[in-house]
Design goal:
mainly alpha; Preprotein translocase SecY subunit
Amino acid sequence: MNKILNVLGITRFVQTIQNIYRIEELRTRIGYTLLLLLVFRFGSFVVLPGIDPTMLDAFTTSAQEGLMGMLDLFSGGAFSNASIFALGVMPYISASIVIQLLTIMVPSFQRIQREGESGRRKINQYTRLLTLVILAAQAPTYLVALKSQLPAEAFLIKGFWSYTLPAVLCLVAGTMFVMWLGERITDRGLGNGISLLIMIGIIARLPHALVAEINVRFSETTGGPLLLIVEILILLFIFMASIALVQAVRRIPVQYARRVVGNKQYGGARQYIPLKINAAGVMPIIFAQALMFVPMLFSGFDSASGFVQAFSPYGFWYTVVFAVLVIVFTYFYTAITVNPTMMAEEMKKNGGFIPGVKPGKKTSEYIDNIMSRITLPGSIFLALIAILPTFAYRFLDINQQFANFYGGTSLLILVGVVLDTLQQIESHLLLRHYDGLMKTGRLKGRTPS
């Protein structure tokens, strides 16, 4: 029996759980994180005051398609529930993207970023203020969408002072409270708080999507359970491919010159610069997805027009243009986040050089050429992952909710957050001389034994 458990890895899994429980700090952080995540999920079901919860069916159905479907996915259903957390962390994410771009392109923001801890606090303050500005525009828009989708009798309270203003304040306060939860998880919990909240929101929609797909497969005369098993296997393969994309790196060897100070010798070791194949992460998909909804805004949401139908989600031209934009934004975001010139200068200051390459400008050009070569397959693979939900919906006939988990932003967020959290748990275990989560695996960040 013990041999069977060892083969299945159950014994090692139980031992790892026991090791995690023995570390008081790690146990406290995990418990604190789970508690705040539970608070976030509870708030997702608290309906805005003045709205009858029993009459939200029409809005729930329409809020699971198009742009609103993406927002509902990231909020874990709070958007379609007309919850006080309906806007979730998306306003904060939008503000963070704008501030991040400003710190790259605007010299004054670059100086603030180089100020260390004080600069980081200023950047966070600017992000919060910009979040409030975005909320001031999004909250009334959300209420307008509610009024257009729900019958008049669904609103128990009417009027600007009695309903609209309190509802807007509730939405603003809800998002700011979610931001606070994320910051507390980052400071006192485990993992990146905002990313974990997004991941929990995505996972919360998975059971509903899976149950809907199971009901469809078991109610059809063709396919049935066998096709459902094939779909699950394809999803597992896509997850493995996404993990490979996130962790893939191109290592550039760097040799450091030897220095003798007194009786001691420093340097002389060979290290590596890990250049990620997907250095841009999930940002190109987010940018491209936001840009793809611009045609719908200018068309006045006229679903009968040919232009809107041609660029509707899961359509042919939508998919083609979306893939091209992902590739373009991957090159753009990689260019502004990876600075070969700065890397070459830092290497030269520390006495390092790439074997066979002259320090300075030649080193910068060498790194830039390698980044250009590895970004091409990375961008194509990222574009393929971005449009996989379309193939799942069109060719495998998977329902729209479940198809969203076959690629796109949600899949990369799930993979990235899970790997980041596992790395933090791994660090705590190895710091106290316990075996890590993956003793024989290739989890990036693991200290080689």
